[in-house]
Design a protein that fits this description.
elongated
């Protein structure tokens, strides 16, 4: 019985490791794609930066979760994880078109702009996750 319980552990570890790597890649790529320094602003207790990055991370985690559920192989997970990263970066740049001073607003601690970016990221993540059926 114990063997049956742990039989899937290697696959779990493989997928969990891949998802952790994708999340680290997401945080790196997203933060270098924005024109403000999220982590420095968060260290300064900037709630706007924490909100926008946190919601964006959630917007990435939703399709990543869907990719994990639907993936047949770790390659599937990696491909669709990269798609989710690109979509989140695209959302940031699209929101910047609507709010040209977006990064400066977030750096200034303007929560409304940050929440709009975060909500846009979250909405894109929900739609992306729903589309990940393969």
């Amino acid at each position: 019985m114990l063997y049956t319980s742990i039989q899937g552990l290697p696959d779990f570890l493989l997928f969990f490791s891949a998802a952790t790597g994708l999340t680290a890649a997401y945080l790196f790529l997203y933060t270098v794609s924005t024109t403000h320094n999220e982590f420095e602003l968060i260290r300064q207790n900037n709630v706007a930066a924490a909100s926008s990055l946190g919601l964006s991370l959630t917007g990435f985690a939703l399709p990543l979760s869907s990719a994990i559920i639907n993936a047949k192989t770790v390659i599937d997970l990696l491909v669709y994880g990269l798609v989710a990263i690109l979509i989140q970066i695209l959302i940031y740049w699209l929101v910047r078109l609507l709010l040209p001073n977006l990064s400066q607003r977030i750096a200034n601690g303007e929560v409304a702009s940050a929440l709009f970016l975060g909500a846009s990221s979250l909405a894109a993540g929900v739609v992306t996750a729903s589309c990940m059926v393969f």
